[in-house]
Design brief:
Blueprint (H helix, E strand, L loop, with lengths): L1 H22 L7 H23 L8 H25 L4 H12 L3 H42 L7 H9 L2 H15 L5 H24 L10 H25 L4 H12 L5 H9 L3 H26 L1
Family: Belongs to the auxin efflux carrier (TC 2.A.69) family.
Protein name: Permease
GO biological process, one term: transmembrane transport
């Protein structure tokens, strides 16, 4: 348990430092959105390409490993739809509840999996990203299409959201290079290694900058439902599926960690683009980020 605390404290410490920088306006409010773009489009892809291209990938149980994550995501969404039938909320708010219930924070995931489980944990996490990011995009955009009337939603928008996602592209590139057996020149490999070291610190600071405290009290029931799904329903479902597929302890632990993570800051962007409730979305991101440390400790203690 001690190593979990030693991994959690630096990760959430960086998030709090990012929020502190926001409060004191350091270095400026204009800096952090640009820094987030740098992390999303350059630093994180560099990390994923570097780790996947240099990894010793073992295909044993990888299909079941990915399926456990996909099934847990899908059935969590179904449960949220059923809850909304029993206790309805308006359509735009429900899209934010869904995003809060099934999306995950990539930066926190990679930072914690690497810190707790080492290089092998980071590789297994990258494998999850390759499949869950496009799957979640399809589910979320489908929910927007069903619940919110929007002219922007069409099949090409869905395809574009997947093939232009730099994290998906990076995972495919890194995995393909590894599979084919191509070796980068030392200069390129070392450059990727240096860039990758900056990815997670910058990403976590940006997460902290994105926290919005002031609107939390406005959406109590929606916040409770979304956080209940994210921090309780999904981890329990993913553990059940992982046990059903007879995965090893490390895979189960990484899946539980994946499931209990806070939702992604990028959820706010999709809410803004497609007509979701932006105030609720920012509140869900903030509350789940703050709550997740507690739930990560609880679930890893129970299931590892």
């Amino acid at each position: 348990m001690e190593h979990i605390f030693s991994a959690l404290i630096p990760v959430f410490g960086l998030i709090l430092i990012g929020y502190f920088f926001k409060r004191i306006k350091f270095p400026s409010h204009e800096f952090w959105p640009q820094a987030d773009k740098l992390t999303y489009y350059i630093l994180m892809p560099a990390l994923l390409i570097y780790e996947l291209s240099n990894a010793s990938l073992n295909s044993k149980n990888s299909f079941s490993f990915v399926m456990a994550a996909l099934l847990a995501i899908f059935f969590t969404m179904i449960i949220l739809i059923i809850i909304n039938k029993i206790k309805p909320t308006n359509a735009s708010s429900f899209t934010s509840v869904i995003q809060g219930g099934i999306r995950f924070n990539t930066y926190v995931f990679l930072a914690l999996s690497g810190a707790i489980f080492g290089k092998e944990g980071l590789i297994l996490s990258a494998i999850i990203l390759t499949f869950t990011i496009p799957f979640i995009n399809v589910l979320c955009i489908t929910i927007f299409a069903l619940y919110v009337s929007n002219d922007k939603l069409h099949f090409l928008y869905l395809i574009k959201s997947i093939i232009t996602n730099p994290l998906i592209v990076a995972c495919v590139i890194g995995g393909t290079i590894n599979f084919i057996g191509i070796e980068f020149p030392v200069v390129i490999n070392n450059t990727l290694a240096i860039l990758s070291k900056a990815a997670l610190p910058m990403g976590l600071l940006s997460v902290g900058f994105g926290l919005v405290i002031k609107e939390i009290s406005s959406f109590k029931s929606e916040l409770i439902i979304s956080s209940f799904a994210k921090h309780l329903i999904m981890p329990i479902l993913i553990f059940i599926f992982a046990k059903y597929f007879e995965l090893d302890n490390m895979m189960i632990s990484i899946l539980v960690l994946f499931a209990v993570l806070p939702t992604a800051p990028s959820s706010f962007i999709l809410a803004r683009q497609l007509g979701g409730n932006m105030g609720l979305m920012s509140s869900i991101i903030t509350v789940q980020t703050l709550l997740s440390a507690l739930f990560i400790i609880i679930f890893l203690k129970i299931f590892i």
